[in-house]
């Protein structure tokens, strides 16, 4: 799929107050914004039109826009984020999403974070995680199956979201952690298995046949180079401190 647009949100000064399981210290707000701007520059360089929403200081995780909506050519699903502290974010993204797609909302009890939703052509792999539950996946499946998509639930054994440790990287290949390598859902794909010391680099973004990968993961970089696709490395040190990565920072469509 070729993307022409991205929606992003400027990280707020309050970024350090967001949710995290990482014990890497507090992120620096100014450096977070600089890394975010570098990410936007990459999207622009790849030919996307980028719309950036203003910071939402009351929601310190709100720049992780991927979690609050799932975009498809036919529709958008506004999620019901698994973490109560993030639920209010949906109200400020929905009006913009609705300008581009007919938007449906998941309801009370139908938990889902977009970080658990991996789309490969007409197939969705959705992580069953601490943020996404069976009810969320069932409702999502009901809505998208009407448009010819299939939905497969995948238990998330490590990492916050499915896409923290499994991503499609082009050429019928998934980049995934050793803990996900035996997952039957991915048996039709070639596998690149992450070095356990570099699991974070699993959040590599395949976009318009280019790979955007975090800098500082040399083993993964060498593995990705075998795909013979253009690779852009970018520093995400501050984003990582809040459990975020490259896919989380945008909605692409
Ligand atoms: C959270 O815990 O919700 C945020 N601090 C990080 C969300 C990362 N989102 C993603 O991987 N899609």
From TrEMBL:
Q: Which residues form the active site?
A: 161 (proton donor), 248 (nucleophile)
Q: Which Pfam families match?
A: ADI
Query: How is this protein named in the record?
Result: Dimethylargininase
Q: Which GO annotations describe the biological process of this protein?
A: arginine metabolic process; citrulline metabolic process; positive regulation of nitric oxide biosynthetic process
Entry keywords, A to Z? Hydrolase
Query: What is a GO molecular function of this protein?
Result: dimethylargininase activity
Lineage, top-rank taxon, reads Bacteria
